[in-house]
């Protein structure tokens, strides 16, 4: 967290300014924890709200007070404004930090609370209402001379009208929720059928996530970059001042949700950066914006940029801006809310170094680049021992990842004097991140940041489907990497065999020590079976694979979740995730988990006599690829369905997914 202050250390001297005695945080997870950290530094007491399933959440433990506001569903807890208003009165909080969904849905309540002397940490309600509605915000942007995307400026009434409008604009089009954000309620349509389906799912997701099912349609800019300007993209105060704090590149996305962000962008030149910043400030001033916010743009290959939306909140990716500017954006929001003027001029805002953020999700990246996973974090260790690493999280070992909330585990941020240094530190941090108990997207994140296209800055919002047209398959091992993995796995096996022969203390009966120093093994990796010869030389092993010898050295602390191994002078950090008595073992190597089977030469020869377990026939079963709630069933027993026909709709983490028949048959 101290990365925020590596450049502008004078920020710390302003924590002593009088602001508020007590602040209520109507949010959860990493962002609630982030706000609490700054409040503690500023001497502000905090009140957390939580649902019943979040009673032991990290943000609840960090706050000075905590109050339960309802059951797990967000509509009955974190979006339950009546309960939140009651907590504000009960705890006598002087200020409140709300999530954007509450802000958009309960404008009148906020105004009432303001009249009773409670300050909202964020922009005024009229700015939230104007910018929270994509239709109104687009009209305001046009009037403020901000570049906008061609499209229909009104509310789309039904699927038929959606098709008519889409034809008039010209395919492809983007269908999105007027009150939306975070990729929810958004669909790309390339024809009439996809427009009808997109209208249905987008309206349902919008109603579920935002309590507002209104939709708009605009031209889809194919193959753009997603670059946003932090006003803190604009930072504005109540004295008519506004700043833009440079840009963030957010083009690596899946399902319109950001995965990797960085600041600054490799694409922008100073002139384009200034033009985007000035338009962002113009929009902020047009709506009398008085807090931190983000103006998002789509940028084409010719550096033409178009207003996408303005988010009237502290964005998930704000840490990368803090790293390169040295500003604490939460502190600035609190100061502005109290009425203090901005203490910086535009000329004061630097770009110092480079910062990269990876969103670590409890998701299976091998399914549509990330379908949600639930479970308990049985083991969790953040890579904070790696230099220049920051982790913003709201979970800990033992935390539950449930179907009710966003599956984000943390935001992993690395900083460097240049982009190459920041990316190298990110690679190391991902290798040293221990997450057990749920599926996670570490493998995808690591592959993205080392991919030649990403390293060169050749990216767009279509990066993932272009680089992985058949879906993500994990790291593809080179011949050298395959030998390194085989040698490491064989060395681990032998190290464990040797450990199992040791006795602690003095045995009552003398035991002859084994003088064995070589082992002949058979290692199965994927479809290949490889003979491996291992010999011990002190704390090192000499391993022969494919007729080549490799020297493998480590401390061999088999109880540690992380194992640093040196293979012929190359250092690798690996994780052994599982093993059993049959020789099966799972090893995380270069970010990807590989399943191996390690047997002695004799056991491998005998294994051919073991019967193989027949694979389950699932062709007649529709099995959800993720946990969630069934929100619609489109068939009934006795119906005949064809391949590709929708059977039901599953909602998970507020996203709706259509489940289709894999073959023609009868239900």
Structure explained in plain terms:
This protein has about 675 residues and is α+β, with helices and mostly antiparallel strands. The chain has six domains: about 15-120, 3-Layer(aba) Sandwich (Rossmann fold); about 125-150 and about 225-340, D-amino Acid Aminotransferase, Chain A, domain 1, CATH 3.30.470; about 150-220, ATP-grasp fold, A domain (Dna Ligase, domain 1); about 355-475, D-amino Acid Aminotransferase, Chain A, domain 1, CATH 3.30.470; about 480-500 and about 515-610, Glycoprotein, Type 4 Pilin (2-Layer Sandwich); about 630-665, OB fold (Dihydrolipoamide Acetyltransferase, E2P). It is about 30% helix and about 30% strand. Strands 10, 11, 12, 13, 14, 15, 16, 21 and 23 form a nine-stranded antiparallel β-sheet that branches. It has an eight-stranded antiparallel barrel with strand order 25-26-27-28-29-30-31-32. A five-stranded parallel β-sheet has the order 3-2-1-4-5, sandwiched between helices. The protein is globular, with a radius of gyration of 27 Å. The two termini are about 55 Å apart. Residues about 1-15 have low confidence and may be disordered.
Topology:
Blueprint: E1 22-26, H1 29-42, E2 45-51, H2 58-62, E3 65-70, H3 81-91, E4 95-98, H4 100-105, H5 107-115, E5 119-120, H6 125-132, H7 134-143, E6 151-152, H8 159-169, E7 173-181, E8 184-189, H9 192-210, E9 215-219, E10 225-236, E11 242-243, E12 247-254, E13 257-263, H10 270-286, E14 292-299, E15 305-311, H11 318-325, H12 329-338, E16 354-361, E17 363-364, E18 371-372, E19 375-376, E20 379-381, E21 389-393, E22 400-401, E23 408-416, H13 419-431, E24 434-436, H14 442-450, H15 452-456, H16 463-467, H17 479-500, E25 518-525, E26 528-537, E27 540-545, E28 548-553, E29 563-567, E30 570-579, E31 584-589, E32 592-600, H18 601-606, E33 629-633, E34 640-641, E35 646-652, E36 655-660, E37 665-666
Parallel strand pairs: 1-2, 1-4, 2-3, 4-5
Antiparallel strand pairs: 6-9, 7-8, 7-9, 10-11, 10-12, 10-14, 12-13, 13-16, 14-15, 16-23, 17-18, 19-22, 20-24, 21-23, 25-26, 25-32, 26-27, 27-28, 28-29, 29-30, 30-31, 31-32, 33-35, 34-37, 35-36
Helix pairs in contact: 8-9, 13-14
């Amino acid at each position: 967290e101290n990365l925020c202050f590596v450049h502008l250390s004078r920020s710390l001297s302003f924590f002593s300014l009088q602001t508020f005695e007590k602040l209520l945080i109507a949010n959860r997870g990493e962002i609630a924890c982030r706000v609490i950290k700054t409040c503690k530094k500023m001497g502000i007491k905090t009140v957390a709200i939580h649902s019943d399933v979040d009673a032991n959440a990290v943000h609840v433990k960090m706050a000075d007070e905590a109050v339960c506001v309802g059951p797990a569903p967000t509509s009955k807890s974190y979006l339950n404004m009546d309960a939140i208003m009651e907590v504000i009165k009960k705890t006598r909080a002087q200020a409140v930090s709300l999530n954007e969904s509450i802000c958009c849905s309960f404008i009148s309540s906020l105004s009432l609370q303001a009249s009773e002397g409670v300050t909202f940490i964020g922009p005024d309600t009229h700015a939230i209402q104007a910018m929270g509605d994509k239709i109104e915000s687009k009209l305001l942007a046009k009037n403020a001379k901000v570049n906008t995307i061609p499209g229909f400026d009104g509310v789309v009434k039904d699927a038929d009208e959606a098709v008519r409008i889409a034809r008039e604009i010209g395919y492809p089009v983007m269908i999105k929720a007027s009150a939306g954000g975070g990729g929810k309620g958004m669909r790309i349509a390339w024809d009439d059928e996809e427009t009808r389906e997109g209208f249905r799912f987008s309206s349902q997701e919008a109603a579920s996530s935002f309590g507002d099912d209104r939709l708009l349609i605009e031209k889809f800019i194919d193959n753009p970059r997603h670059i946003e300007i932090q006003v803190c993209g604009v930072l504005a105060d109540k004295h008519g001042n506004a700043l833009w704090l440079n840009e963030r590149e957010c083009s690596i996305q899946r399902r319109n949700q950001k995965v990797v962000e960085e600041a600054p962008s490799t694409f922008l030149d100073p002139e384009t950066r200034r033009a985007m910043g000035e338009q962002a400030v113009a929009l902020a001033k047009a709506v009398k914006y008085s807090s931190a916010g983000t103006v998002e743009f789509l940028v084409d290959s010719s550096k033409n940029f178009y207003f996408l939306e303005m988010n009237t909140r502290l964005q998930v990716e704000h840490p990368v801006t803090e790293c390169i500017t040295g500003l604490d954006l939460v502190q600035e929001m609190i100061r502005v809310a109290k009425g203090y003027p901005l203490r910086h001029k535009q000329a004061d805002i630097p770009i110092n170094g480079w910062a990269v953020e990876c969103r670590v999700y409890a998701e299976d990246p091998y399914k549509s680049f990330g379908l949600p996973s639930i479970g308990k974090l049985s083991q969790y260790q953040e890579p904070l021992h790696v230099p220049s690493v920051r982790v913003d999280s709201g979970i800990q070992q033992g935390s539950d990842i449930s179907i009710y909330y966003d599956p984000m585990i943390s935001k992993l941020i690395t900083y460097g004097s240049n982009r190459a240094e920041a990316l190298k530190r990110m690679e190391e941090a991902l290798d040293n991140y221990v997450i057990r108990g749920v599926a996670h997207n570490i493998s995808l994140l690591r592959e993205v940041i080392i991919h030649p296209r990403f390293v060169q800055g050749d990216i767009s919002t279509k990066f993932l489907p272009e680089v992985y047209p058949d879906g993500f398959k994990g790291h593809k091992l080179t011949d050298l990497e395959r030998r390194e993995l085989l040698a490491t796995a064989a060395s681990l096996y032998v190290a464990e065999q040797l450990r199992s022969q040791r006795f602690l203390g003095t045995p009552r009966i003398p035991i002859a020590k084994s003088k064995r120093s070589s082992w002949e093994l058979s290692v199965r990796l994927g479809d290949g079976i490889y003979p491996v010869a291992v010999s011990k030389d002190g704390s090192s092993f000499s391993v022969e694979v494919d007729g080549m010898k490799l020297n493998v050295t480590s401390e061999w602390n088999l109880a540690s979740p992380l194992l640093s191994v040196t293979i012929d002078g190359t250092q690798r950090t690996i994780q052994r995730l599982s093993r059993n008595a049959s020789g099966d073992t799972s090893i995380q190597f270069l970010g990807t988990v590989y399943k191996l089977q390690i047997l002695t030469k004799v056991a491998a020869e005998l294994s051919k006599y073991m019967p193989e377990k027949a694979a389950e026939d699932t062709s007649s079963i529709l099995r959800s690829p993720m946990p969630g709630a069934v929100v619609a069933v489109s068939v009934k027993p006795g119906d005949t369905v064809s391949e590709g026909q929708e059977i039901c709709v599953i909602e998970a983490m507020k996203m709706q997914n259509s489940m289709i028949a894999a073959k023609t048959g009868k239900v």
